[in-house]
Amino acid sequence: MTMLPIITAPDPRLKRTAKPVARVDDGLRKLMDDMLETMYQAPGIGLAAPQVGVLKRIVVLDLSKEDEERRPHVLINPELTWVSGEDVTYEEGCLSLPDHYADVVRPSAIELSYLDRDNETRTLEADGLLATCIQHELDHLDGVLFVDRISALKRNMILRKLLKAKKSDTTPSADPAHVL
Ligand code: NI
User: Fold this and answer.
1) CA distance readout (Å), 172 to 41, 67, 87, 103
2) Which CATH number fits domain 12-168: 3.90.45.10, 3.65.10.20, 3.90.1150.10, 1.10.3720.10?
3) Confidence band (pLDDT; 50, 70, 90) for 71?
4) Is residue 91 annotated as part of the catalytic site, yes or no?
């Protein structure tokens, strides 16, 4: 396993649109294993490939708690096929915006299709934290960060502080359930 460096905002590499994967091969499977390990170590519950500098539509996540068995999800070319008309608010954080949190409103339930690590097309229905986390990660694939979904005032405040933090050396201490 290789730990991958996580890009933190503000950084133009987090604002690009990722490209679909044509076929999952051993190289990508290794990348996904490294992404999972990187996410577990961080710690966080979700990580998208652009956050480690790879512009491909790949997401890994795992909502299991520290004392539970790991339940990793790997989503390749994920696409929403349905979203609920009902919204829910969750306090989101992100490995690319260490130490910052904000309430984000998103649809409360979703359905999606994706490729698994064996190139099989699969579908998934999600609600609760899983639905929130998947939507947060899908945003990363389109260059959207959770701060793009809050007020400009709050966004600019967070980005300014992150810029400052980049110049100093700070270690984030967070509840991983909010680091998507
Ligand atoms: Ni994130």
Assistant:
1) 12, 21, 29, 19
2) 3.90.45.10
3) very high
4) no
